Amino acid sequence: MKTLITGVAGFLGSHLLRDLLAKGKHVIGIDNLSTGRLAHIEEVRHHPHFHFIHFDVSDPDVLQLDSLLDVSEIYHLASPASPKFYQNDPFATIAVNTIGTKHMLELAKMNHAKLLYASTSEAYGDPVMHPQPEEYRGNVNTWGPRACYDEAKRLGEVLCYEYYQRFGVQVKVARIFNTYSAGLRNDDGRVISNFVNQALTGAAITVYGDGKQTRSFCYVDDNIRALQLMMEKKVATGEIINIGNPQEYEILEVARMVKEMCQSTSEITFHPLPKDDPRVRRPVIEKAKLLLDWKPQIHLEEGLRRTIKAYREQRVERVQS
C-alpha cells in the first residue's frame, strides 16, 4: 500500500511525511516547490520507502505518472497557505485547489483510493457565527485579496462532494485552523513564525489592527495526528471535519506571551489591519471528538516553548555555518 502526499515539501506535508515513514509507510511525495522547500524533506530524501516527484498537480500529465498508479491513500495538501504567498500568486493558488484537486480526485477514482482534502478555516471567511461549526456556511468576500485562497478552497470542497456523491470516491475534508511549529518558513508571514522570529532577533513585533482579533492555534503534532485518524476511519468518509484547537487567544495576548517567553526587548508595534482579515476564529470540534476520538493535547504555552527552542537552535546553526 502506497500513500501519496501532495505539497510534501510544505509545512504540513513534510511533518506528515516524517511521521508516516516512521510508521513504516511507503510514501510518494509531489511538490512543485513554489512555496515548499527541499530542505524540509532533506533528512528523509533518500529514505528507501520515499520517492519524491518534482511536479505540479495542476498539470494534467500528473495522471500519466506511472508511479501513482497503485497509491491507495492521497493526502492532498498542495497549496500556498500563507496570505503572503497565495496573494503573490493568486492564479496558481486557484489552480492547485480546483484543477489540482480535480486531478487528485480522478486519481482516487481510478485507483479506488481514499482522499483527504486539506481545506481551511478560511472557508468560514470573516464569520458572523462564533465559534464555527462545520454546518456554518461562512461569510466570504469573493471580491478581495483573500478570495483566491478562500473561494478556491471552497470550490475544492464542492469537487470533493461531487466525486463522493456521483462516483463514490472515499473523500474526507479537513477544515484546518491555524497550525504552527518551528517547521514554518522564517519568511512565511504567519502569526507565530512572525512573532517568534521578530522576538528572537530584537525586531519590532508587528501586530495588525488593535490586536483584539482572535485566533485558535493548533500545534502541528496534534494536526498531523488528526489527519491520519481521518484517513484511517471509515466514519470520516463523506464528512467535513474541523481540525483545530478550540482555545481562543487575542493576537496581542500571543504577542506579549512570545515576547516574555523569548525574554525579548522587542517593541510591539501596531499596523493597519489587512482587508478582510477575520475578526474571530475558533473551531467547534465536537465532530472530531465523536468521529475521530480526537482533541488537541498540546497547549499553546508548551507549543510555543518547543517552537522557540527550535528556532533558537536553527539561528545558532546558521551562525556557526
UniProtKB/TrEMBL annotation:
Pfam families: GDP_Man_Dehyd. GO terms for molecular function: NAD+ binding; UDP-glucuronate decarboxylase activity. Its cofactor is NAD(+). It is a single-pass type II membrane protein. It is an enzyme of class 4 (lyase). The keyword Lyase applies. Signal peptide: none annotated. InterPro entries: NAD(P)-bd_dom, NAD(P)-bd_dom_sf, UXS-like. Its main location: Golgi. Residues 4-307 form the NAD(P)-binding domain. Pathway: Nucleotide-sugar biosynthesis; UDP-alpha-D-xylose biosynthesis; UDP-alpha-D-xylose from UDP-alpha-D-glucuronate: step 1/1. It is found in: Golgi apparatus, Golgi stack membrane. Its EC number is 4.1.1.35. Keywords: Decarboxylase, Glycoprotein, Golgi apparatus, Lyase, Membrane, NAD, Signal-anchor, Transmembrane, Transmembrane helix. It comes from the Bacteria. GO terms for biological process: D-xylose metabolic process; UDP-D-xylose biosynthetic process. One of its GO terms (cellular component) is cytoplasm. PANTHER family: UDP-GLUCURONIC ACID DECARBOXYLASE 1 (PTHR43078:SF6), UDP-GLUCURONIC ACID DECARBOXYLASE-RELATED (PTHR43078). Belongs to the NAD(P)-dependent epimerase/dehydratase family. UDP-glucuronic acid decarboxylase subfamily. This is UDP-glucuronate decarboxylase.
